[in-house]
Specification:
Neuraminidase; 4-stranded antiparallel β-sheet; single chain; globular; mainly beta
Amino acid sequence: MKFRIKTLHVFLIIVASLWHPLHGEAERREELLGEFPAPEARQGVAVDSDHLYVISNFEIGKYDKTTHARVATWKCPEGDPLIHLNAGIVIDGRLYCAHSNYPEVPMTSSVEVWDAATLEHIESHSFGIGRGSLTWIDRKDGHWYACFAHYGNRAAEPNRDPSWTRLVKFDTQWQELESWVFPPSIIQEFGEYSSSGGTFGPDGRLYITGHDHKKLYVMEFPSAGSVLLHKGHIDIAAEGQAFAFDPSSSWKLYSIVKRERKVIVSQLVRRN
């Protein structure tokens, strides 16, 4: 009898491990709330309590969060000096944007900073070459997290592909502390591209997007080793690119559809 109970216990453990939602949908789903056109909707969107910041390669549009009216713009002459802005995040009245020289090689990266109130460019931190193309940043528990992408297309560096993409943890002075890579299941989703957006969600877990799949991937940090854990995904209307959770409205999501130049407003709700 004891042998049968032990055998059943082992069987249940095996079944539980096979059920792991590696490629399945997460416990939340997207409900669309609305959308609006924004010509800057090429790379992503950032959000604070009152405004949205829609990001293009070298242009930013500031929109009223309620009326969706554009209230300010910032534009850099093409390629002088900014080439390819990526995801953004607003912290303490500052808009931080990831920037790279994509698709040029060798890859260079920097963090560019604007005064969110005026859209005046006020600061820059350069990473130079060596890590990859910076695509998104976030801050959690006093540390910066930054994703440095690698590609399998015309922007690939010699002997590099998307599997070299890594998430780096920095201190407040941008000194590297540790880093992680993405698992094969996520690398497969990236295709020839990489992670275009990422941020910590209201539940503290990490959420990322790829370049063009309509999926928001749910990630967790491993208890050991260097490979992030892929816990599932949420089907979304956006086709990859960078996104933002509304800090003043839990699980409200802003994302973009690049090919249609529009911002999507949605809510992630629990499944019934």
